[in-house]
Amino acid sequence: MGKDGVGIGLVGLGTIGTGVVKVLQQNAEVISERLGFPLRLVRIADLDLDTDRGVDLSGVRFDSDSEGLLDDPEVQIVVELIGGYDVARRLTLAAIERGKHVVTANKALLALHGAEIFDAAAERGVDVAFEASVGGGIPILRSLREGLSANQITSLHGIMNGTTNYVLTQMESSGEPFEVVLKRAQDLGYAEADPSFDVDGIDAAHKLTLLVAMAFGARLTFKDIPTEGIRGLTPLDFEAAERFGCKIKLLGIAKAHEDGRIEARVHPTLIPATSLLAHVDGAMNAIAVHGNAVGPTLFYGAGAGEMPTASAVVADLMEIARELRRGSAGRVAPLSYAPQHLRPRPMVSLGDLYGRAYLRFTALDRPGVLSHIAGALGEQGIGIESVIQQARGSEAESVPVVILTHPVREAAVRAALAEVDRLPDVTAPTLFLRIEDET
Q1: Topology at the third CATH level for domain 141-302+344-350
Q2: Which pLDDT tens digit goes with each residue over 369-379?
Q3: Is pLDDT above 70 for 392?
Q4: Which residues are known catalytic residues?
């Protein structure tokens, strides 16, 4: 590192990349004062060289030559902000092979190829930092890796996707159906034209993959995490949840069991309206972490957006720059656990989960239908805590019946629903939501 500080190369000048340029420029003085030297943006590579991003790039080489950027001796840290899997993987591994440190916000890349990337970085003696990949500007990963490192983490529950949280909040407050609210979220820029990654829970599963590795030392990919989205929810579910004293949130959940197994799952969940996570609305994120020494902690903030995410990217740049000045790397293992202690962990199957269940049946409004449903539940030893039955219509009409169960193993619920959904008077598949009484 010379007198001009640490050289940065940025690949991808989209929304987050532009935010990184803004933070480096607007906060240059405080960054330099905290480090004792400046961060210097040397090069930017992007395929779009024409769009005006509203930032001054004078003095910065800006072209489409990502290979040239990787080979540039002035670039000491590469920031990967192109997203996706294949190209990002090749670029990241190429940067590591050239001895460059890497900062990325790409949770999808790390959730699928993290083991390969981290192993390559360890072998080459460089750092890979990724704070911005989970929770936007919330310093949740740094907290797990350092601030909470003396703890055995027992559980974490997180609202990890701002798009789905916005949609759920709007459905609850407006009483409008999913499709209407999603269209408004797209018009406002909260949701992509293809919202599948968000509303189907895939984005949250990517993030949970990294959190599970850091919390429990578990080697896994997001494909190992059971994942459900929010498409099947209706306004009735929010009304019923309110009557039961609950809110509906898309949660990423992970727990450590005493027998060494871990839970990891993403799905819409009923949680008590009195819990802290129940009050996280709009596009905000929050992650509750429980450690055996520290007890409950809550991390809350903007989970996405240009400047909050850029804040986390530049914080990673500063951390690596400090290590460069010391002439070292790998001060803290990227996934919190030393690499040799990251290992596959046995997973708790969904059938073994134990808790209360929310069940919404759709059935013809005929005498005896409710008793048939209750009978199928009773055969599996499932007790009923509460029932909400829609006002009677004609016998040709289908009406919803909502049942809240006593705590029960999920395998029993699945077996009962298989029987219920075969009943001639049941006209649609049953909606099953899990209830988390402690978040």
Answers
A1: Dihydrodipicolinate Reductase; domain 2 (3.30.360)
A2: 999 999 999 99
A3: no
A4: 207
